[in-house]
Amino acid sequence: MGAGSIGCFVGGCLAAERVAAVTFVGRPVLAGAIAEHGLRLCGFGRAQHLPSSDLRFETEVGALEASEVVLCCVKSGATAETAQALARVLRPDAVVVSLQNGIRNAEILREHLPTQRVVAAVVGFNVIVHEGAVFQQTTTGPLVVEAEEGSPDDRWIAALRSARLQVELAKPIAPEQWTKLVVNLNNAISALSGAPTPEMLLSAKYRRAMTLLLDEALGVLDAAGIETAKFRGVPLRLMSRIFKLPTPIVRLVLRAQLEVDPESRASMYQDLERRRKTEVDVLNGEIVRLAAACGVEAPLNRRIVARVHEAEDAAKGCPRLDADALLAVLLC
User: Fold this and answer.
1) Distance CA 165, CA 161 (A)
2) Hey, what long-range contacts does 110-117 have (CB within 8 A, 24 or more apart)?
3) Nearest to residue 99, comparing CAs of 228, 11, 19?
């Protein structure tokens, strides 16, 4: 449900390996592109093409009425509306898995889906969409699922693994969600600059902007008493210290931690380019709300939220701010 970049990639992997019958529900424009070109998956050793004749891509939620497992991949702002629509059509024993950014989506889904079981998950990799319905994985990483071995979820988790997706289990999952949110604070920098992820990571000035947001967020989480998980084995505070080191050292550390495609960019950048509302309010905005609830300040994240909203309102796409301009936004 919400077959965009993540939905089409994960669903496409399942369909390509023939480990599950997959129904995609997404926007009409993407339905048209897939009808013309089929669906192509690429990145990190994956190169698969599914012709449109092998796919079921629909635009109405009713197509999911018989589904055993629904992967909810809509943007966070559409979660409540989507949950209400799913409640009208899903079988009562369906499992709904939230493959979404932010902290609150599983909770919102549960409010509207009282008979279905909702499972939270964290998507640890990035996917970008190219013309012609090409879905490219641009960073490595796992799907982290709120489950335990030996649970009723083993069957569909096994299907994901059979589709050559890396799946890890975590229960409780909240520390993983907060870590992903803190890492995703950098999405706003990607969205406002248009810089590819490797360029951001290997630029001292971009890294300074990233660590300013990161350090502020960690202070807010400390005030709230919220624990975070390690990011690829590295505590977030250590990541902040690493980012402040000279670039040659950062390059060596990152090379050991993850693989990043040269063209990788955050989905928030694609949202701005397509003149869509972004998820900045459930990422940086979540830190601002949490700070207010704890009686502390988060001025840097508040400023970056305001600047992203300015770009949304202008509807001109990515404003292409360089690192100096971004630092000026944060430190004004």
Assistant:
1) 5
2) 111/80, 111/83, 112/80, 112/83, 112/84, 112/86, 112/87, 113/83, 113/86, 113/87, 116/86, 116/90, 116/92
3) 11
CA dist 102 and 286 (Å) reads 8
At 48-70, the pLDDT tens digits run: 999 999 999 999 999 999 999 99
Measured at the CA of 8, the angle between CA 7 and CA 13, to 5 degrees, comes to 105
DSSP class of 231: B
What's the rounded Cα separation, in Å, for the pair 49 and 37?
9
Q: What's the CA gap between 83 and 87, in Å, rounded? A: 6
Residue pair 232/153 in contact by the 8 Å Cβ criterion? no
| CA gap 106, 243 in Å, rounded | 32
Contact by Cβ (8 Å): 227, 175: yes
Rounded Cα distance between 39 and 104, Å, is 31
Q: Residue for token digits 């635009």?
A: 59
Cβ neighbors of 295 (< 8 A, separation 6 or more) are 223
178-197 b/e with 16+ CB inside 10 Å = b?
bbbbbbbbbbbbbbbbbbbb
Residue 303's nearest CA partner among 277, 285, 282, 324 is 285
* Average pLDDT of span 213-217: 97
Q: Closest by alpha carbon to 135, among 217, 216, 227, 42? A: 42
Report the pLDDT averaged over residues 168-188.
Answer: 96
The amino acid present at 38, given as its one-letter code, is G
Strand partners, 50: 39
Q: Is 119 helix (H, G, I), strand (E, B) or coil?
A: strand
Q: What are phi and psi of 320, to 5 degrees?
A: 60, 45
Asked if 59 and 28 count as a contact pair (C-beta separation under 8 A), the reply is: yes
Residue labelled with tokens 């909203």:
309
